[in-house]
């Protein structure tokens, strides 16, 4: 019987890709049906959300023209957002249930949690047998020493703007903030685009990439 804590831990735990080993132990991770269904729904909603972010300037204008920012339209949008939110929560729960019922995944998660508490050489060796989302890898180095420069460089202080100039800058700052935090940062770093990551994650596109990862790990010791 799956414990409530295990179920909760599996809801937001990282995606497992492969288990390394010798002979039949080495294999790609096969998610259970519930985990597969939950992942498909979550990824689909994620793609829809990202498309909405990229097209938000046009989408907001279209919704405004059709009256969705009026009281009746806002009620419709609220119902839509609530429905999508319920579907997303249920999908996370279904995925967590599928992972919690999978012994292979629970062993990986136990190893990962042990490494996050104390990354000893033996635990790290066990964790190296799994290929998973790198963002969940335990922190191995953390600087706590403040480094000071004996000859600090003089800082240039920007010229103070007058009050009318500040007022004129407000629209430009709002537009710049919106652009940078929506599509700007993703254009600078294309690898952060979720849609691109999802496409590369599909079996059709990622087979050769995944095979290269495996060969690098097995024959070149991950170097």
UniProtKB/TrEMBL annotation:
<feature type="transmembrane region" description="Helical">
    <location>
        <begin position="174"/>
        <end position="196"/>
    </location>
</feature>
<feature type="transmembrane region" description="Helical">
    <location>
        <begin position="46"/>
        <end position="64"/>
    </location>
</feature>
<keyword id="KW-0812">Transmembrane</keyword>
<keyword id="KW-0472">Membrane</keyword>
<protein>
    <recommendedName>
        <fullName>Phosphatidylserine Lipase ABHD16 N-terminal domain-containing protein</fullName>
    </recommendedName>
</protein>
<feature type="domain" description="Phosphatidylserine Lipase ABHD16 N-terminal">
    <location>
        <begin position="5"/>
        <end position="133"/>
    </location>
</feature>
<dbReference type="InterPro" id="IPR054518">
    <property type="entry name" value="ABHD16_N"/>
</dbReference>
<dbReference type="Pfam" id="PF22990">
    <property type="entry name" value="ABHD16_N"/>
</dbReference>
<feature type="transmembrane region" description="Helical">
    <location>
        <begin position="76"/>
        <end position="98"/>
    </location>
</feature>
<keyword id="KW-1133">Transmembrane helix</keyword>
């Amino acid at each position: 019987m799956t414990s409530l804590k295990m179920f909760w831990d599996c809801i937001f735990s990282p995606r497992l890709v492969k288990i390394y080993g010798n002979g039949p132990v080495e294999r790609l991770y096969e998610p259970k049906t519930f985990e597969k269904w939950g992942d498909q729904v979550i990824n689909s909603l994620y793609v829809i959300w990202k498309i909405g972010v990229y097209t938000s300037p046009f989408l907001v204008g279209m919704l405004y023209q059709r009256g969705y920012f009026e009281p009746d339209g806002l009620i419709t949008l609220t119902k839509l957002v609530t429905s999508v939110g319920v579907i997303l929560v249920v999908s996370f729960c279904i995925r967590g249930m599928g992972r919690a019922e999978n012994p292979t995944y629970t062993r990986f998660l136990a190893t990962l949690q042990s490494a996050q508490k104390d990354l000893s050489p033996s635990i790290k060796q066990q964790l190296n047998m799994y290929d998973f989302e790198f963002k969940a890898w335990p922190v191995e180095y953390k600087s706590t020493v403040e480094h000071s420069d004996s000859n600090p460089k003089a800082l240039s202080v920007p010229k103070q703007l007058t009050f009318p100039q500040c007022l004129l800058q407000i629209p430009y700052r709002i537009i710049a903030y919106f652009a940078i935090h929506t599509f700007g940062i993703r254009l600078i770093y294309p690898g952060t685009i979720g849609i691109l990551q999802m496409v590369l994650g599909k079996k059709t596109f990622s087979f050769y990439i995944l095979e290269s990862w495996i060969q690098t790990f097995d024959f070149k010791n991950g170097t």
